[in-house]
Task: inverse folding
């Protein structure tokens, strides 16, 4: 049965919408578990959670095809899960174990998967944007019609390298979708305090790039915008900008006291705009899924996340000798 919402042009089957629900829930529960493990001292260093932003990456992954590429910042666990990377190996990397994607030597912000075309995980704000354009350049150079999703934040959007990349990407018609995940804050700085031109996607006009603003708490709106952007890039029309309005429920990282916003502000978003509740409501009110079916999904996700945590805790830490390996690329490989 087709589901249509007046504000959301993406029309998907009940089965597909249920899959979006499942994928968003996987990210939510995985991140909650990562937060717990961090609290227990099992995860060291920085850990940036994606809770609240799940509809962004799930909606865009629904618009992607095999071979498309993705690259993002340090807030990267959701992107990895959404493109099908292994929860066990992600959690093991968070806890610094050998079974992790970077053999326990990269941590939360530095994971990659050639198989899933996931190019990181980058700790330097905005650095992934020119790299993303480079990935798109490679596809264009080789005559491939694959596209690259380059995700970055509202804070990163103010960086010089982002503007340089916009300029070159359009000059060379690169098939790159610039995804601004506008979660309203860059660390403790509200987007309203950071710029006098708050419509971030409109800046693309200065370089001749088309784009649009998207409701990032509605996975169907994101999917529809993703389809438009992918079509634009895949048909050789150059880059596209999506400014996706979203909200992060947790602090910037696990060590953020969050004194720059009120509890009421966060609570209001959680209770009125939660992207997972939104889909749940559509599924239940339209009788597209039963309470029992959704409960079974909850149970399945809990199992996956608990297994990942178990795997991460049981896996060994790398030997000290591993400090001397994987430092430079083996060009013979
Ligand atoms: C070049 C650089 N400058 C500063 C930092 C410190 N820093 C880390 S995250 C961040 C805020 C970025 O905010 P935004 O782009 O909105 O992404 P979000 O964290 O909200 O996902 C800053 C300033 C950094 N990592 N790299
Ligand atoms: Mg931000």
Result:
């Amino acid at each position: 049965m087709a589901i249509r919402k007046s504000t959301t042009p993406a029309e998907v089957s009940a089965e597909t919408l249920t899959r979006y629900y499942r994928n968003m829930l996987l990210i939510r529960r995985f991140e909650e578990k990562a937060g717990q493990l961090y609290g227990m001292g099992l995860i060291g260093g920085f850990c940036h959670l994606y809770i609240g932003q799940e509809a962004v990456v799930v909606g865009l992954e629904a618009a992607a095809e095999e071979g498309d590429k993705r690259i993002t910042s340090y807030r990267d666990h959701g992107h990895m899960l959404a493109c099908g990377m292994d929860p066990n190996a992600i959690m093991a990397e968070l806890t610094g174990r050998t079974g992790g994607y970077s053999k326990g030597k990269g941590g939360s912000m530095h994971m990659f998967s050639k198989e899933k075309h996931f190019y990181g995980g980058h700790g330097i704000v905005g650095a992934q944007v020119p790299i993303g354009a480079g990935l798109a350049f490679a596809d264009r150079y080789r005559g491939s019609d694959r596209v690259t999703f380059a995700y970055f934040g509202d804070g990163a959007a103010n960086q010089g390298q982002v503007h340089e990349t916009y300029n070159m990407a359009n000059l060379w018609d690169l098939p790159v979708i610039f995804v601004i995940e506008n979660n309203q804050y860059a660390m403790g700085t509200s987007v309203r305090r950071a710029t006098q031109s708050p419509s971030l996607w409109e800046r693309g006009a200065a370089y001749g790039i088309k784009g649009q603003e998207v409701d990032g708490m509605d996975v169907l709106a994101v999917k529809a915008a993703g389809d438009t952007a992918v079509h634009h890039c895949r048909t050789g029309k150059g880059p596209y900008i999506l400014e996706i309005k979203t909200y992060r429920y947790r602090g910037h990282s696990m060590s953020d006291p969050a004194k720059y916003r009120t509890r009421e502000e966060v609570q209001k978003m959680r209770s009125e705009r939660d992207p997972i509740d939104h889909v749940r409501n559509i599924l239940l009110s339209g009788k597209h899924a039963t309470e029992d079916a959704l409960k079974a999904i909850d149970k399945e996700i809990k199992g996956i996340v608990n297994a990942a945590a178990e795997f991460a805790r049981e896996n060994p830490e790398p030997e000290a000798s591993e400090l001397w390996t994987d430092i430079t690329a083996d060009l013979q490989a």
